[in-house]
Structures are given as C-alpha cells and as structure tokens.
Amino acid sequence: MEKRLLELRRQKKLQTLIALAIGLVLVIGSAVRTHFTAFTLFEGIGEMFKFVFNDFLPPDLSTLHELLGPALDTIYMSYIGMVIGAVISLVLAFLAAQTTSPHRGIQVATRAFASVMRNIPTLIWAIVLVAAYGLGTLVGTMALIITAIGTLTRAYAEILEEIDMGQVEAVRATGASYFQVLSQAVFPQFFPGFIAWSLYKLELNVRSSTIIGMVGGGGLGFVIQKGLKLFQFKEVSLAIILVLLLVAGTEFVTSKIRERII
User: Fold this and answer.
1) Cα torsion at 104, 85, 143, 80 (round to 10°)?
2) What residues make up the domain containing 164?
3) DSSP of 66-118, one letter per residue?
4) Residue 15, number of CB atoms within 10 A of its CB
5) 225 pLDDT band (50/70/90 cuts)?
6) Is 58 in a helix, a strand, or coil?
7) pLDDT for 11-33, tens place per residue?
8) How many domains does the chain contain in total?
9) Inside any domain, residue 60
10) Residue 28 is assigned to a structural domain of this protein
11) SS3 59
12) 126-182, pLDDT tens digit by residue?
C-alpha cells in the first residue's frame, strides 16, 4: 500500500513538472512571437509618459461645454441600452432556463441565439450597424442592446436555474398556472440577481460606449476619435477624463442602488 502511494506521488510530481515545462515553453514561445521583452516594455512606458505629459496634459478646459452633450449622449446610450436589453433578456431567460422553459426545443434555440449575440464583440456589431444606419447615437444604442441581450440572457438563465425548486413545487401543488408559478415562486427569488446583473451591465455599457463611439456610435468615443485624427490631444485628454468620471460615478451609483435594493 505504501509503495503504491509513493508511486502515485511520483506520478503526480512528474505530471506537475511536465505541466510547468509546457507552460514555460508556451510563455517563452509566445514572448518570442510577439517580440515581447522587459527592455522594450520599459522603453515603451517611458515614451508613453513622455507623450502623455508633453501632448495630452494639461487638458483643454475651454472645450468642456462642447463635451457635455456627448457625455450626456454616452449616459443616455448606456442607460437605454441596459433597460431595453434587460427587458428583452428577461423574456428570453425564462425561455432559456431549464427550470422555467416550456419546452426543451425552445430552451436550446434560445440559448443558441443568446450565445451568438454574446460571442460577437460589441465593436463588430457597431461597425455593421454603422454600415446599415450611418453614424450617430442610434447605432451605439442598438449595439449596446444587442450585446446586452446576449450577456444578460445567459446570466438571467443561470440565476433561474439556481432557484429553490421546493418553493416552485409547493406553488404548483396548489394547482397554480404556469404564469402564477412564475410570479409567486420564481420571480421573487430571481429579482435580486436580476437587479445586480442589470446594474453591472449598465457599468459595462458606459465603458463599451466609448469604444463604440470611436467607430461612429456617437458620444464621447466619437469625440475622442475625431480629436485623435485632428491631433487635438488636449481636448482628447479632457474627454478621457470625463469618461473616467462617468465610469466612476456609475459604479458609485449602482453600488448604492444594490445596497438599498438587494
């Protein structure tokens, strides 16, 4: 018995060493293929700081009034993208979750649809929508809605699959209909997770809207892209500061809402 344990330990140790060796080879190979070295890393950091302090700072505060509109557009896009995406995802999640879906085929089809929507990056959706609808905040809003549907449907469905089925069976035993079971036993358990994920998606939307704006989706991202093309770096730095403030403000507000509701 002791001999067998020693043999298993040797095998475990050998497997660990092989895994570490493979990992090391992959790291070295990847670094070589990407031309990554510690020297180039520190050299690039120095150039980056030089560029930021020489060209970006200080920000041009005289353009603040011109950026307030795009900043509000960023908030509007993020909020409406979250709300509409959450409402659509709520319906789809009940169809995609094993615990609430009325039919297995509907569950599989809904999950496949959400997976496709989720796995295509927001930037790709924005580029496609710009080609179809032109530049503007409509494109940014639509791109955020589409990606919200993919992300939130999956998240909501997982929450629904983790609910206490004892409560569901108890309500069913009273002869309640499908919709009565959902409203009395499922949704009360689902609500806290629904709020948490919806607010988290709002935070993600504020960040994503900047990238979407840089390909024509409006908001501060569009201002940043335009400023970079025109070498108006001090205006760009102010826009970036506003993005950071919006992200921080959104995280603060959503955290307070979570504390009160959840």
Assistant:
1) 170
2) 66-261
3) HHHHHHHHHHHHHHHHHHHHHHHHHHHHHHHSTTT-S-HHHHHHHHHHHHHHH
4) 10
5) confident
6) coil
7) 788 888 888 888 888 888 887 88
8) 2
9) no
10) yes
11) coil
12) 888 888 887 777 888 888 888 888 888 888 888 877 777 777 677 777 776 767 777
pTM for this entry: 0.74
- For the four alpha carbons of 163, 165, 171 and 176, in that order, the dihedral sign comes to positive
80 domain residue, yes or no: yes
| C-alpha pair distances (Å), 256 with each of 76, 78, 194, 224, 252 | 20, 18, 16, 30, 6
181 phi/psi in degrees, rounded to 5: -65, -45
Q: Is residue 123 part of a domain?
A: yes
The pair of structure tokens assigned to 87 is 């409402």
Model confidence over 68-127: pLDDT tens digits? 888 888 888 888 888 898 888 888 888 887 777 777 777 788 888 888 887 888 788 888
127 shares a domain with 34: no
**Gap between the Cα atoms of 194 and 200, Å rounded:** 10
Q: What is the mean pLDDT of residues 243-258?
A: 81
Q: What Cα–Cα distance (Å) separates residue 209 from each residue in 11, 82, 174, 233?
A: 51, 12, 47, 20
CA pair distance 86, 96, nearest whole angstrom = 14
Q: What's 112's domain CATH number?
A: 1.10.3720.10
Enter the tokens of residue 143: 């791109």
